[in-house]
Known about the structure:
Mean pLDDT: 89
Number of domains: 2
Radius of gyration: 22 Å
Distance between the termini: 66 Å
Helix content: 40-55%
CATH architecture of the largest domain: 3-Layer(aba) Sandwich
CATH topology of the largest domain: D-Maltodextrin-Binding Protein, domain 2
Strand content: 5-15%
Low-confidence stretches: 1-23
Order of helices and strands: HHEHEHEHEEHEHEHEHHEHEHHHH
Structural class: alpha/beta
Amino acid sequence: MAWQKAVWALANFTTILGLQVAPAASEDVADFYKGKAINFIIGSDPGGSFGPYAQVLADHMPKYIPGNPKIVVKFAGGQSGGLQVANQMQNTAPRDGLTMAMTQQTIVLHQVLQPEYAKYDARDWYWLGNMAPVRNMLAVWPTAKAHSVEAAKATEVVIGATGPSSPTYIVPNVLNKFAGTKFKIVTGYKGVADLNLAMQRGEVEGRGASWISVQLTMPQEIADRKIIPIVFASITRDPSAPSVPTLAEMMPDPLHRRVAEFLSAESDFGRSVFLPPGVPPERSAALRKAFEDTMKDKDFLADTVKMKLYIEPMSADMLAKISQQIIEAPKDVVELAK
């Protein structure tokens, strides 16, 4: 047929011109990754939702990477909101395509809010994509003296946190500054599992972090009303707890509301995966495509259903766009957020 001849002619033309770059690049990538392992660095401890999200991705993504390397999950701890992992990825991680990372979703915000500690630029990273948005929240234990934001304006509530760049600290601190609450924030906990133990032992009366981590690790406590969400740091209310207000809703002042929305934008980064700058383009492109293909894989999706993991992928291009918007936010909003 005429169209077949045209296609054949075009194929020969591109061969003559030496334009068959993609197959050669693909073969080079496969040769590089064959028999190797990719280190998947996680800016968290294994006790929250990072662990299940990281492992299910590591289980399924290798079959879509040329050469089928293993992906080995390594937890680096969530202290200081995963800043250590972000700095590592920017400055010391190998640029060969054998290291990828997933760290706290606040990490782009903290490039703006804490530049003295953020020795990285998220605009340099090569995003692979986001598995799901993650809404941070603040929740209290039944023994807490206040079970709502309004009640916490009149009564002190002890809240556990990992460090000042973590959402476990940010949410109660913003409420203290702008909404008049009396949360006493105790830092130094290593991660979600540590915070849960602290609540159960009576050391603290509440804690923040992602709501998905509570849904995964404490489903019975939710059902029994032993852990009670009182606010979500997100643009929209969480569908599983529609009566709980967002952080912005608690702000009477319009500028404070804009600050709350700025801080809540980090929920879009959820469980995002990225490479350090400088990875060879053919390898970074292959890993991005492998991530995207994994998000549509039926076995991957079946496992996430079994594990009760919410999947709502976001593209790498969108993550890059949101990163730029956050980093270039209006000065008045940024200064007040600081």
